[in-house]
Design a protein that fits this description.
It contains 9 helices and 5 strands. It has helices spanning about 1-25, 30-55, 65-85, 85-145, 150-180, 180-185, 190-200, 220-240, 280-290, and strands spanning about 205-210, 245-250, 255-265, 295-300, 305-315. α8 links the parallel β1 (about 205-210) and β2. α1 (about 1-25) runs antiparallel to α2, α4 (about 85-145) packs antiparallel against α5 (about 150-180) and α4 packs across α9. The longest helix is centred in the middle third of the chain and has 61 residues, at about 85-145.
């Protein structure tokens, strides 16, 4: 009785396996390897039914011995052929996965490029639109200042002139931060040096910058991304790390561009970086930007031991 129950359960499982195998044929687009595997499951099912018949009906195994043998042979052949051909399914899956990743990187690159274009447009609108208007206001105030000798009026005009000058400076800074003209006109090295010099002049932190780029120019998108990454890293150090010194080495060779960034700040636990995206949006932006160039990013840091960031961007994206 127990053996009958076990055989019945085994047949049920084999029916389910054969049914699922047949259903998966459609998802594999009727791939030849899966057809053979499905035939193998069907042969095994038939063989198991024949094996169980004597336990339920008055039949002798010798009556269908030849059929039983051929079902065993055919199932073995079907499985063997299917497993040999199934390599094509894995190749197809790998191809689809690679295409998906490539599409994601292309989409990310397009989004970043669109962001840079929008930055340039806003910077141009600020510089060419509001800038001249405020300059005209400043000129008018200067003329009014010369023609009015009242002490009260002079004080008001002086205040207005000071505010206008500050507004003009703010617009220039905003425009430069959105899309630095130095980057477009003079290249990556000059833009980074210009950005770092402004921070060094404040006296809040010591920065050592070394590079062999000089006047060499790269793809505009590559230059923009590296510039944004350096700015993001420096800003993160100043805001969060309480560091006294930053060392930046930016070099290129025949294979690509390498950026080595170090600070002696408070550091952070790199394991926590991928657990919560809320506290590391800037770092995630860095990772996504570098990945859009098919580059690599490595963070080496721990609490109280500073931070080191290694970035490699290949020239040959293929």
């Amino acid at each position: 009785m127990f053996l009958r129950l076990v055989l019945f359960i085994a047949i049920i499982f084999q029916i389910v396996a054969a049914f699922l195998s047949l259903r998966l044929m459609r998802k594999t687009k009727y791939n030849l390897s899966w057809i053979f595997i499905s035939l193998g499951f069907a042969s095994l099912l038939m063989r198991m039914i024949l094996e169980a018949l004597p336990f339920y009906f008055n039949v002798e195994p010798k009556d269908y011995r030849l059929l039983y043998m051929w079902l065993g042979v055919s199932s073995a052949i079907f499985f063997a052929i299917g497993l040999v051909l199934i390599r094509k399914i894995f190749i197809y899956m790998e191809k689809m996965e690679n295409e998906t990743r490539a599409n994601e990187k292309r989409l990310l690159a397009v989004m970043i490029q669109a962001e840079e274009n929008e930055r340039k447009r806003l910077a141009k609108d600020l510089h060419d639109g509001l800038g001249p208007l405020l300059s005209t206001v400043k000129m008018s105030l200067s003329a009014l200042k010369k023609s009015n000798n009242t002490e009260t009026n002079s004080e008001i005009i002086n205040n207005l002139e000071t505010v206008t000058i500050e507004a003009i400076r703010s617009i220039k800074d905003i425009s430069n931060n959105l899309s630095p003209h130095v980057l477009d006109n003079f290249g990556l090295d000059k833009a980074i040096r210009n950005f770092l010099q402004k921070i060094i002049n404040t006296g809040t932190i010591k920065i050592v910058y070394n590079s062999n780029i000089n006047n060499h120019r790269f793809d505009a998108n590559t230059e923009a991304i590296i510039y944004r990454v350096v700015c993001e890293l420096v800003n993160n150090t100043i805001k969060h790390a309480k560091a006294k010194k930053i060392i930046i080495n930016l070099n290129y060779d025949l294979f690509g561009i390498k950026l080595n960034y170090k600070d002696d700040g408070s550091g952070f636990e790199t394991n926590a970086l991928f657990k919560s995206q809320e506290k590391g949006t800037g770092l995630y932006n860095i990772i996504s930007r570098i990945h859009s160039l098919k580059g690599k990013v490595e963070f080496n840091s721990s609490s109280g031991k500073g931070t080191e960031v290694l970035i490699e961007i290949p020239f040959n994206n293929e």
